Model the fold of this input.
Amino acid sequence: DYLPQLSLHYLDSSNVVTGGADSASIQWSVTVKQPLYNGGRRLRQRRLAEADIELQGRSIKDKKREIRESIDTAYYRVLMLKRKIGVQRDTLAIADQALKIARAQRALGNIRDIDLLESELQRSSLEISLRSSEADLEESEFSLKLLLGLRNSEALELLDDFDAEYEGLELPGDRGFFASLVLEGSLELRQRQGELRKKLAALVEARQWYLPNIAFEGSLSLSGERYPLQSASLNGKLVFEIPVPTSPVSFSVSSGASTDKQKAKGSSIGLDPLGELASLVESETAAKEYAVMREQIDDMAASLEFQVRKDLAAYVRARDSLEMRRKDLALQRKK
Done:
């Protein structure tokens, strides 16, 4: 929009007059149109486009981060299931031994049939859980290979790096710190803010209708009846356009000169009554859309802050639960 527009025209005509002299006309012309000022509209559009490009780059970075997080989650899920299956197999082996003992005790009459049945049901339940975990492991390994771009037939060997003494992170007590991080890093919120800037630009443009569009047009033409062309003319025109609501106005001043010592100058005014009736409500519509979008962004920010508080509380509860389970496991080992 800031670069000049160049156009080239060629005209070759002839007039045949019966009983009179024929005539011919050849003309070559070059016209250049250069925008000079457009009320800051193109500048706002360019800045909005730059912001959109920045958001697209941010979206790609967030997508990469999501892929890495998906790989990490799948990786540790496979490790967890392998450990779980190891524990379940050991437990199933213990249950097999307990079942053999129960059958021997039943043969001696030391326990009832109901006690033997309970041992068998417990062993069957452990085997069902083991088979379910093995199926989950197979599915999780397939998902991890898919994320890593590996074929399902390729072997997958992972390093087990669990920290049994891990107690979680010590988070600072200032919840506003995490809320500010989330608000600053939320891609969806940034996208809404980009839409809000567009709504604001539309509102400003609707209210600043009085700022004109200014452009310069220059043309050079060569003409004559035959080659080489003998006549040349140079013309220039300055065009002002004011997008007045419902009645756009255009005003131009022109001047020109030719090699045959002729000079010309002039001006023109154009008015387009009821050109765009929709502009009557454009300003009001833009203001309402801006207000609605601003309210939506405020609601989204409040929702994100609430989610931060909720997630922090859930994290503290999960860390406390982990500590309680660790103590419970230590007591069971003592028993």
